[in-house]
Design a protein that fits this description.
Order of helices and strands of chain A: EEHHEEHHHHHHHHHHH
Number of strands of chain B: 15
Main location (chain A): membrane
Radius of gyration of chain A: 26 Å
Oligomer: heterodimer
Membrane topology (chain A): Multi-pass membrane protein
Family (chain A): Belongs to the binding-protein-dependent transport system permease family.
CATH superfamily of the largest domain in chain B: Periplasmic binding protein-like II
CATH class of the largest domain in chain A: Mainly Alpha
Strand content of chain B: 5-15%
Shape of chain A: flat
Number of domains of chain A: 2
Subcellular location (chain A): Cell membrane
Number of helices of chain A: 13
Largest sheet of chain B: 5 strands, mixed
CATH superfamily of the largest domain in chain A: MetI-like
Protein name (chain A): ABC transporter permease subunit
Number of strands of chain A: 4
Helix content of chain B: 40-55%
CATH architecture of the largest domain in chain A: Orthogonal Bundle
Chain lengths: 323, 494
Amino acid sequence: MNIVTREGAVTVSGPAVPARRRRLATRIWSERWAYVFLLPTLLLFGLYTVWPIISSLFYSMLDWNGLGAERSFVGLANYREALADPLFWKSLGITLVIIAVTVPVRVGLGLLVALVLNNPRLPLAKLFRTALFVPVVTTTAIIGVVMGFIFDPAGGPVNQLLLDLGIVDQPVDFLGDPGSSLWTVMGVHMWKWLGITLVYWLAALQTIPATVYEAARTDGAGGWASLRYVTLPMLKPFLLIIVLLTAIETMQIFDLVLTMTNGGPYFSTLTSEVYIYQQAFASSTPRLGYGAALGVLFGLVTLAFTAIQAIGIRYANRARSTS
Amino acid sequence: MTTFGRRRFLGLSGAALAAALGVAGCTRTSQKEAATAAGGDVIRWWDHFQPLQPLNERIFAEYGRAHPGVRVEHEVYNPNEMGQALQLAFKSNQIADVHSIAGMGTSEAALVADGWFSPLAGQDAIRANLPADSLLEGLHVFDGKLHTFPLFSSRQYATLNWFNRELVEKAGGDPDKGPATWDAFRSLAARITKAGGGRAYGWIQGLQFHERLQTHVTELAMSAGAPLAMAGASGMGLVDPKTGEYAYASDPFVHALEFLLSLVRDKVVFPASTSLDARTARARWATGVAGMFFDGSWNVGVVNGQFKQFIDKVGVGSIPSPEGEPVLYGAPAPGQLFVSSQSEHVEVASDLLARLTSPEYHKGLATFMDQVPLDLDAVATADVHPTYKRAVELFGQTVRLAPSPVARNSAVAQVLSEMKQPRPTLGEITQGILSGEVTDIRKALREHTGKLTAERERATRVVSGKGVKVSLDDWKFANWQPGEDYTAKMYQAS
């Protein structure tokens, strides 16, 4: 059998499949160093990402406390229990509330600050950028513990300030009152991660060619018109990506919540990750199998966001190429 | 000049990677081996007995002198965090040779069934030092093999009312006894708060530590008349001995929660209590920001060790109760320390543990003022703070031995280990009530009771389905009398 290329030239004779395999093998061999260098990443990805996912799927079908050897296969029973578990839905709801509140604020505020800091004539712009990025690189657990002191109703600086200014006449239990704890955690989360959203926007702003602004100026556009008719339209393709990246990051708010409130008081800050952790490891009667099932369900939610992100990237690329 | 070509670079990189992997792979083994090589047998010991740290370390040092080459690495955990540390360490095969099980909640029997512990070596010598009726199958002995033993007495509770004598006196209270009734407690807390003018509050508690909060509620309910039989440390083992049913929806529990809620409504609770656990609450209390604090007998031991400047202000009174004459029930004293199944030093660890059964150690226990030692005579002769002696007196007056379903039929422990803790737990419900999230106390308790009852029935069916002889009748004690000790003889008659 002859293989004919699209151009019509006969290139290879003999059976089709072995020839294709030979070609693939030749290509792999010719790019062998690329694969060698990829190997460590693939190995680590397999060990720390793929394998835990497969293990979680397996564990999620076990009735197992994770402590002893005794475990029994229960099929989908853990999933059925999770879907009927009010605390699972509550934790998912809280996670979604955190996303719904903090993502728009982070994205909007990040854009605003990026526009200000992107101005080359702004003095000390680098200092401000660094200052806003410092919380990002500070260990979250340390921030969580320190915030406990800062918001302490008995002598914490925030309450002291509010009392001194006469804004309140009784200390506010920011982290101990279910009505305020979630808002407090969200506030700290936004402060900590604003810097990373700012960096996304600054990177997006760098993609706008200076010539476009020059052309706009030549056409008589002022600052506001440049922003409205040049900057914002050209940033539009990035918006979806930044929103989705920020949303996915926000789903992983585990360490901050754990150190600030541990999901309390009375489940008011119980995010999905904290609930999974509590069920699998931190309960007085741990249930690793059930925790794994909760993890798989939460993973599906994250996957949905990731799928939206992939679609968003495609949309953004298309929009960029047409613009 | 030496050239550094691609092949050489790759070769060196490969060798470095192999070496790194080799080192990583050997780390766990080498930690133990290096420790052993450096100083013979190294026994790793984790517990949560902070006041006993100097005593235990003295025992370890003495043992090391008597057995050159044996060294103990001792770590004292916060009980609020220890359960997580144990679970992670057990799973990664890095658990200590000897450890306590604070924060685990799971019954001893379940952990034994899951292969956590080794039977103790040299059992006869340990048994010989302990009162015969202090060791029970299903609690300390499993399949005839001794796994642990009690260090502390059954006659104690964790809701003594510790108070700041200075603040109590300033508020017109009795600095020697403290308030006896709930009403007196409430009134005194209000007066302390008023006199404090925003700098001191009536009551402080670690409300974030919901397991301990559950203990306080249970004990306050007992002080209000709740009768309880006790199996295991978790709330899944507490029932009315007459009926064998869970008693959480009964009036004493409702009243206990209403009492705590009244303190919140009166605004006499130290504001940051919701973010504190037992240790941080105690540390704040010792700075004089609150008048009263519920804790066990070990409180004065910790204050003596860590907040010495505060020790002269410490007073103690009985758990407050509706009428001022509380009766509480104490479960058979559980074992505190176990030798891990992962230990390579079972004999040495057991030998070391055996030292904790000596009269000298029990005298030391009293001296360092932790939980009340099994040998109560040790307290009488020890040089301890007056509040510790007073605490032991109060325990003697108020605590009766509760019947234990596990002591009657050790298979009940299997039911407990099969049970899954329904959530919210009593401690979490209490947090909800105190924070205003749960408004109908009785309804919340009824739902909790219903979940526990259904879960116990399911677990009993599962265990008895395996051919084990166990039933719900094992939880009933028809011959139990309120206010009386449930003695070993009564198990035989029941």
